[in-house]
Design a protein that fits this description.
Pfam families: Ni_insertion. One of its GO terms (molecular function) is nickel cation binding. Keywords: Lyase, Nickel. This is Putative nickel insertion protein. The chain is an alpha+beta fold and 380 residues long. The chain is 34% helix and 31% strand. The protein contains eleven helices and 18 strands. The chain has helices spanning 14-24, 29-37, 72-80, 86-107, 122-138, 167-172, 190-199, 256-268, 299-310, 356-366, 370-378; strands at residues 3-7, 43-51, 54-62, 142-145, 148-149, 154-157, 160-163, 178-179, 202-203, 210-218, 228-235, 240-251, 273-280, 286-294, 316-324, 327-332, 339-346, 349-354. The strands form six sheets. Strands 9-4-1-11-10 form a five-stranded mixed β-sheet. A four-stranded antiparallel β-sheet has the order 13-14-12-15, with helices on one face. Strand 6 (154-157) and strand 7 form a beta hairpin. Helix 1 (14-24) packs across helix 7 (190-199). The longest helix is centred in the first third of the chain and has 22 residues, at 86-107. The chain starts with a strand and ends with a helix. The mean pLDDT is 88.
Amino acid sequence: MPELHLDCPAGIAGDMFLAAMADLGVDLSPLRAAFATAGVDVEITAREARDKGIRGKRMHIAAPHAQPLRHLADLTAIVRALPFSENVRSRSEGALERLAEVEARVHGCAVADVHFHEVGAVDTLVDVVGAFWVLEVLGVSRVTCSRLPWFSGTVQCAHGLMPLPAPATTVLLQGKPVYPTELVGELITPTGALLLDRMVDEFTSGPSGCLERSGLGLGTMELPTVNGLRVLLLAGDGPGLERVTVLETNVDHLTGEEIGGVFGALLDAGALDVLFLPGVMKKNRPGGLLQVLCRPGDLARIRDLTFAQTMSLGLRMTETTRAVLPRAASKRPTPWGDVDAKDTIMEGERYARPEFEALQALAKRTGRSVAQLRYLLGND
């Protein structure tokens, strides 16, 4: 499965990422058709452009009609109506929820009360959904990124004149490697920072692998350097390496129901995995080890949520490396219709494993059990 590396010496905005992917060769016309199906009429065009004599593509995203101010519920309703895979819709919803949480934090209000001004326009919906959709189209299994340039200046927004990076951008950049520059202007927008926060598996000094092709997405701001985001598509058919953080705590003070609730809260917040191993604790009390796996960029959020959900007084945190096989979401045809599946490759062989939730839905439609469907699909 291919991997993607983002090279962003001039920063990143959501439209720059889509433009770069279009320059890489992705046809964006299905994206516009999908939004039309969801009742949102929007023009999505990647046009040829130049900056400092270097060619690339620049996005043009425009809605022909005036758009209302939207809340998170309005945005997620649109996402759920899109004819994309559950993987694309869920990742898009999760990103929008993350943005709403950050905006609520910097403005001191409830998530439900956040008005999406600049960040809530249709172009942000296109940027966020489009990003996860193109990753699925290309079958990208892993995203890496260069260090990020720090910048200064001010920006005029609905709340007045603000210093750069914007408050929401600053929060989203926490945990990411940055370096100082003399560049003045908004190099990383809130939407760009959101994509970095939700897409990037690891920040590296450069790409690793066999380079297949590249694309350049140009921004609109005039800079002393080329204002562009370069994406590099790399071939990959073996396990990739990524950094992860493991959080552990001993638990002997929670009920079974409370431990079950901890799982849902952490996984919904972006934890990669949650595990509880039962055992006997001090004073011979029954308890166990709670283990949480997350990406380093999500550590602060997952750490604080683990404290809040468990009321434990201490967490052990270890950063380690895991090997992951390339994977991609797919549709597996069956005699009863397509089901969502995960594809991977081992030793040159492709394997597709249907998602459990998809099998549950298929079981309800066919009157068969999940166990029966697994047997039938494994012998078709």
